[in-house]
Specification:
single chain; alpha+beta; 5-stranded mixed beta sheet; 3-stranded antiparallel beta sheet; elongated
């Protein structure tokens, strides 16, 4: 189902569920789509606790992300290694054990970079076997405009590297844009399997209908009288 279709389906189901009780109430399709992605993120975190294989339908591949040049070695978080390149990628979904990013590396997928999500990347240069291999630090605290920074190290091992491929679970695929690539529009497919889409529709519709009925319980007068 397309993203825009899922938003419309939720709205129509809410109206049907209320049986026409709210003729003057309108539901923003954009808001409902945002709520669908929020519930999707919650479900992804729950599935991630069961294992990476449960998340395979949610990964999206972003090709040709441009590598940007800048000397980031003065960043106080960098204690070792030289960083002169970085990329910006969409904010990943929050998952157990940081499994939301599956791959960062060349478009050819010939070599996957070692990924770090905390300051342990500073110890990479002391690894005897892999100290010269490319690696990356994913700065989860650098979020802005729907993107985060990924610092790249040891890229000199790969010649003429200008673009990278990223495979990850994106928190909200509608909230970012990287140069002229990797954008997602409402006319694209909702990034979740059909059974998850159905769960999302049911969950949001149920919440809206239940909350409305709880807030609009009719106030019937008490006509009972005491009998003696």
């Amino acid at each position: 189902m397309k993203i825009i279709e899922l938003g419309s389906a939720i709205r129509n189901h809410i109206i049907d569920g209320l049986g026409g009780e709210t003729p003057n109430t309108s539901y923003s399709r954009d808001q409902l789509i945002d709520e669908a992605f929020i519930y999707r993120d919650r479900l992804i975190f729950e599935l991630s606790m069961k294992g990476r294989h449960e998340l395979s339908p949610f990964y999206q591949t972003l090709d040709a992300i441009p590598i940007m040049e800048a000397d980031l070695s003065t960043n106080p978080i960098i204690k070792s290694g030289i960083c002169r390149s970085y990329i910006r990628i969409p904010i990943p979904s929050v998952t157990y054990s940081n499994v939301s990013i599956e791959y960062i590396g060349p478009v050819s997928k010939a070599k996957s970079f070692k990924l770090y999500f905390d300051d342990r990347f500073n110890h990479h240069t002391f690894r005897l076997r892999t100290s010269k291999e490319p690696y990356a630090y994913v700065d989860l605290d650098s979020a802005s405009d729907g993107l985060i920074d990924v610092m790249l190290f040891n890229l000199n091992k790969i010649k003429d590297l200008r673009y990278l491929t990223v495979r990850e679970i994106i928190s909200n695929p509608l909230s970012f844009q990287i140069a002229d690539c990797c954008t997602l529009a409402e006319e694209d497919e909702f990034p979740a399997p059909l059974y998850v889409q159905d769960m999302i529709i049911d969950k949001i519709v149920q919440r809206y209908v239940t909350q409305y009925r709880q807030l609009h319980i009719p106030d019937f007068p008490n006509k009972q009288t005491d009998k003696t």
